[in-house]
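Request:
Um, any thoughts?
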Amino acid sequence: MRHPHRDYGSAGLVGLCTPQANPTVEAEFRLLMPDTVSPVVTRLTSRADEPRQRLIDYIETLAASLDAFDTLATDVIAFACTGSAYLVGAAREHALVELEQERRGVPVISATAAIDSALRHIGARRIALYAPYPDWLVEAATAYWSARGYQVARCGRVRTQSADTRSIYALGSADARRMLAAEAPAGVDAVVLSGTGMPTLPLVLDHPEFDAAPVLSSNWCLAGSVADALGVTIDLDEVRRRLAAARGPDSGTEV
């Protein structure tokens, strides 16, 4: 226990940076993190109407979003947006993260870095990539992971109601489950579900429709990297119990 004097967050305070209209990151972090870890949230904001510019603004104005914490000192910072990194590229993403890490004096972990860490941990090089993105962002995501040395063997879109990236927030894990069941990608080392706004925990924990490779998601990987940074363990049995309780008795799906 790192901070026994704290009533809440004795094992760590996580500065969670989530896109302004995203309802999923906080919910999945609450399910994944042990009770001794407390996420505190700042919103990544932009007034841009165009989705591409909005995503770029989220990472380019990261310093301002973190300044919204005022004097609150977190133990780790989690940047929970993948689309931003895909548009600015790995080099710019790394530079901005490193700048904030030096300024804040704590680890700053991006969702894409967490996915990369998880893929390397299992030795995955050939991946299937699925995301609820418009075509231009799927292309950027594919280019990003290819540039990081992965072979994107399969790539697909989880369909949304519009080209506005905020329509992702209306999706459920069942939408990704249907795509994975229909696609059944073969010959890959891992399936990556990119995007922090689409709920994924039920699918990551339970995917009998597809058992040929691990299924990883942005929030799952980010939470894992945060847990590693804090030196805590994610209890999967507890996560399943919490998820079942959160979904209610009429969800119709076991996890």
Summary: DSSP finds eleven helices and eight strands in the chain. The two ends are 30 Å apart (CA to CA). The chain has a mean pLDDT of 90. The domain at 12-112+221-247 is CATH 3.40.50.12500 (Rossmann fold).
